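Researcher: Here's the sequence for the chain we discussed earlier.
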Amino acid sequence: MTTSSPHVRPHSPWRDDGAPPWEQLRKMVTGGWAAITIHAVARLGVADLLVDGPRTAAELAESTGTHENTLYRFLRAAAALGVFAEREDGRFDLTPLAEYLRSDVPGTLRYIAYFFGETTVWNSYGHVMETLRTGEPMGPKLRDGRSWFDYLEDHPEYSEVFNKAMTTVGEAGVAKIADTYDFGRFSVVADVGGGQGRLLSAILQRHPEVQGILFDIPAAVESAAGMLEAHQVAGRVERVAGSFFERVPLGADVYLMKAILHDWDDSDCADILRRIRRALDDKPDGRLVLVECVVPPLNEWHYSKLMDISMLVNLGGKERTLEEWRSLLASAGFELTSAVRTAEPHYVIEGRPC
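Model: Thanks. This is the structure I predict for it:
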């Protein structure tokens, strides 16, 4: 594991060594302005409307059903960030950054930008002092006491956006994750909370003899057919709808979860893991495989340290250090046997039943 001295500041994308400290901090303090601007143009699908060439704010406003001058001001702000370019003739064009707000490009960030601006997600940060005082997330309170996933069941628009966000934001790392761990030594891989099945598809493509189980809430597994068919693995995947707080499917040799446990506190995670442990009772060679962040020590920059705040205020979840992962797995009857760095910001963590 990488460590760093408390007197050495590893590189952070949020800092610019060439700028005075005051200017660096000001950029951080006002970062929310940039985030909500990008959310707005992503939600409107502006980048998709510019694929065929530059357009004016008036043309874009007509296409998006928005107020022309107001949209212009958002476009101008986005262009100042390098997202779109404003031309002298008043038209706006795509830039390399804006390309990743298109819906149809591999690794698109459109849906994650859309998701982060969802009302209850965004507003959770406005109640951060309450979370600091109580240790409790505000997200469920803003959703009338419901978890994020229960809330999605009643909000199909955001359910679709969330599933696409989870699929597309991880697209760039799927191949590396599938190659980091040897799934070929198992007969059946169960992807628990596997969404639309993108990672499971990559694993099965590499191992033609392996069968798969895709387990998630109904909206997710129902939307997975196209993904599985596109990667020509649909015939080897059993899609199972359900909640991992009630059960996990039986019959797998390895249970995979990617970016699932960071949504939940230690108690909930232990409950989920114990269900998996019971499913492996008659499989001493079975394994648990997690794809999660591992928080590094001291001042070392890592995406997980800011993601941890998002998990805290929105869901009550957390990012974990290696020792916290080791302790959590042990509480559910697993021994942490390895943690291997894979596609950023994740590690592949293996647990063996004990």
